[in-house]
Amino acid sequence: MRNFTVGDQLTSIDFSQPRTFEEGAYPDANLRIASGVYRISAPAGDNELWWGQWGATYDNVVIDVDVNQISQRNENAYGIMCRVSGTVGQEVEIDPSMLEDESVALDALDGATAEAEATDEPEATAEAVSGTALGAGGEEIVAGGDGYLFLIQGNGQYAIMRSRGRDVVPLVNWATSSAITVGPGQNHLRAVCMDDYLAFYINDQYVAGATDNTFQQGQVGLAASGANTLGVEVEFDNLVVAEARAS
Q1: CA 20 to 30 Å from 205, out of 4, 76, 92, 107?
Q2: Residue 148 is part of which domain span?
Q3: What are phi and psi of 95, to 5 degrees?
Q4: What is this structure's pTM?
Q5: Rounded to 5 degrees, what are φ and ψ at 105?
């Protein structure tokens, strides 16, 4: 366990306004801002991890969020991602020098459209299909999207994982903590990503730490997965991102 201090606040989202986080509707999942929360619903319960991401690219951060499990079944996983690859919600800048060549400028604008769409009409990241990691009950959680995962399950377990390409590696494998509110209900999660240090706090209690230097920076994400036929529904609120400083 390393000492750190929470520095300046970088951003906060209370989900009271639309288009402040990545959204999208798909046959197997729905990611939406509604009624002042960010809701991830995956009724299929096929173990795929769905996530949304947003905002600036950060390096050393402390991420706090409240999460409320709405669905009744506990075969699930949900939580925070940090250092997620991508630029969802970021404005794309075009080099003015490129305007001298009309064809190059058009190509650049076409390429920028896909990234800029997230600002105009957020779309959810495609479901993760690039790797698997065993859930606490032996089920496979299909994960993807480069970044670090800080997950809890409704049965009272937690884990820290690294997702990269087709590989998902548990940095802290599933373990039980009495800090977790079991079943439907609310938990407060904190993820610390500081240099090569990762730490997970649940309801203000430190539960685990790990070291890994694969990813240096990226976006913030929120994720959920269901592992039974009734699926999962969770709601996130009061997302705060602040600087993490070694002390």
Answers
A1: 76
A2: 4-88+125-246
A3: -65, 120
A4: 0.82
A5: -65, -40
